[in-house]
Specification:
This is Metal ABC transporter ATP-binding protein. The protein is an alpha/beta fold. Helices cover about 25% and strands about 25% of the residues. It contains seven helices and 13 strands. The protein binds adenosine-5'-triphosphate. Adenosine-5'-triphosphate (ATP) binds near residues 57, 60 and 61. Adenosine-5'-triphosphate (ATP) binds near residues 31, 58, 60 and 62.
């Protein structure tokens, strides 16, 4: 079972501009008899945008947790940079949204780092918070209570919080889930701007690939203990997804968007829940149980 104390499987390395930000070798993660993935080899380069897709419960958040060191691998090894930023899944905050200002939220990102307390620590903290707010264009509303801000503004502040540590690897757990298309676009642009300006690698867990499709270099697609890694053109195909799901899945490109028909659930793209009435020619006759 996944164990945070399996520290020997995860090595944190000093950030090195010449090295990849993360390398999985023959990695395995399981909870009891449930294997989320096995024999996973994946190297994430600086500046790379990796989307993590898959149905509910396939292990997307667990993948981020391994990178964060919250879950230990059950096999293989992981080497990862110490410069990680994290945008967690949005959820109801315990604190009073009218009592917490945007800059307080961003400051929490600094408090987790190594700048200490005292006057120098406070000045340093203030500079880091101000720089992160400016980077995401949130200075104007940084002193407003979180509860008065729109979902898009709040998400911008969460991005700022993740940037306070100057990450080389930015982990994003469904950061678009409650945003309208305009704000989805703004937040993705913000993350991609960081990727381009600082060569920061992005690992982006999402149920919807379309808002990020223009930016994605590679996809890690997890389904029922199996996975595929490749460019969107390699992975998001009728043949590959049918093989991965072990059932008939059809992938259509409509106006530069991906529409997936079939699969276990309807979550990851413009996805039509009704399976086709007859198997597609590509899927017909294919073995249904195809390990990866
Ligand atoms: N600490 C844990 N102990 C036991 N099982 C766990 C633990 N963490 C995750 N799991 C199980 O591992 C599976 C993968 O969970 P995970 O949250 O990674 O999936 P996900 O792909 O992110 O799902 P979703 O799309 O619903 O957010 C689930 O079945 C979950 O119940």
């Amino acid at each position: 079972m996944a164990d945070p104390d399996h520290s020997s499987a995860r090595t944190v390395i000093d950030d090195d501009p010449a090295a990849p930000v993360a390398t999985f070798e023959r990695a395995r993660l399981a909870f009891g008899s449930r294997v989320l993935w096995d024999d996973l080899d994946l190297t994430i380069s600086r500046g790379e945008f990796v989307a993590v897709l898959g149905p509910n419960g396939s292990g997307k958040t667990s993948f981020l947790r391994c990178l964060l060191g919250q879950y230990g691998l059950d096999g293989g090894r992981l080497e990862v940079t110490d410069a990680i930023g994290y945008i967690p899944q949005q959820h109801a905050d315990d604190s009073d949204p009218m009592a917490m200002r945007g800059r307080d939220l961003v400051g929490f990102g600094v408090d987790g780092s190594r700048w200490g307390v005292g006057l120098r620590g406070r000045l340093r903290r203030r500079r880091l918070v101000d720089a992160a707010l400016a980077e995401v264009g949130a200075t104007a509303y940084a002193n407003a209570p979180m509860g008065l801000l729109s979902g898009g503004e709040q998400q911008r502040l969460r991005v700022a919080q993740a940037l306070t540590t100057n990450p080389s690897l930015l982990l994003c757990d469904e950061p678009l889930s409650s945003l309208d298309p305009t704000n989805q676009h703004r937040v993705v642009e913000l993350i991609d701007e960081r990727r381009r300006s600082a060569n920061t690698a992005v690992v982006f867990v999402t149920h919807e690939i379309n808002p990020i499709l223009p930016y994605v270099d590679r996809v890690l697609y997890l389904v029922g203990g199996r996975f595929r890694i490749g460019t969107p053109d390699e992975v998001m195909t009728t043949g590959t997804l049918s093989e991965l799901y072990g059932s008939d899945v059809e992938v259509l490109r409509v106006n530069r968007r991906l529409v997936v028909i079939g699969g276990e659930d309807s979550h990851h793209c413009d996805h039509l829940a009704e399976p086709p009435t007859s198997p597609t020619p590509a899927a017909a006759g294919r073995e249904r149980d195809t390990g990866v």
